[in-house]
Amino acid sequence: MNPNPFAPDSVAVYVFAAAMGAVIGSFLSMLVYRLPIILKRQWDRDCREALALPPAEKAETFNIAWPASHCPQCHAPLAVRDNIPLFGFLVLRGRCRHCAAPIPRRYFLIEVLSTLAAIVSLAHFGLTARGAGAFVLSAALIALTFIDMREQILPDAITLPFLWLGLLVNRAGLYTSLDSAVLGAAGAYLFLWLVFHAFRLATGKEGMGHGDFKLFALGGAWLGWQLLPLVLLFASLAGALYGGALILTRRLARTTPMPFGPFLCAAIWLALFYGWPLMILYLRGAHG
Ligand SMILES: [Zn+2]
Q: Does residue 148 sit within a domain?
């Protein structure tokens, strides 16, 4: 860090990045809670329409911006001071000021992760378009991770825009060539699509969801095809280790499906920051 406050790697720039990361994190934790509810209401309406059923009773307006942040238990609106990212949770010690209902720790965790992602993006890529892009992708991956853990869905509303965005940023060759990004996005989708159908034909079971194909395609669009084997290896290893540990400690039945999205997200993130150094290390090892 540079003591000159106007340098791109000064303390002031880091503090600003951390604060921005925390604010975005607060938005992400709201999104993780609200987006699945919005989607379920939409699906409910679509199903009723398709089945020619009468529409459900008019529900209260609920979208990303409305109603204002409130306690899900007692519905008391959140005071501005309690809504400050990171500090709000700490000041309240994780409980609602009005009814003392516990606030899920997820809120705090998402804000911490987003803050860290902003700092790491700045430290790794500097105050550049690559740094900004890395943070934007990190934010999307954090939201997808927590939504998949909670609801076992990877909403198109996040995966698809960020897939296209990956292709766009690589028009300028931000992380890889455009050619490699297009091959990565299409190849990733088709590869998992093939695995999915082969697995289903062989076992009659569905091993993953279509959201996983789109998320992997997103990874291909940002990273290029060359890093995809690494992503799949990381994600599968982490998933197997985690699942194995849960089964061994009997916290998960062998037959319970486990979302793959969080592991894919973590692997894509790792590959964006450390993919090429790891590949070079591996290739050096493989060729003595
Ligand atoms: Zn409350």
A: no
User: Looking at the domain assignment, is residue 166 inside a domain?
Assistant: yes
Same domain? For 163 and 214 the reply is yes
CA–centroid distance, 199 to ligand 1, in Å, is 46
Give whole-number Cα distances, 146 to 28, 131, 280, in Å: 10, 23, 31
Output the CA 70–ligand 1 centroid distance in Å: 8
Helix %, strand %, coil % for the chain, to 5?
70, 0, 30
Co-location of 165 and 285 in the same domain: yes
Cα of 260 to ligand 1 centre, how many Å?
A: 33
Give the distance (Å) from ligand 1 centre to CA of residue 57. 26
Provide the domain limits for residue 17: 1-127
Question: In angstroms, what is the span from residue 98 Cα to ligand 1's centroid?
Answer: 5
Same-domain check for residues 56 and 159: no
Would you state the pLDDT for residue 279?
86
The model scores a pTM over 0.90: yes
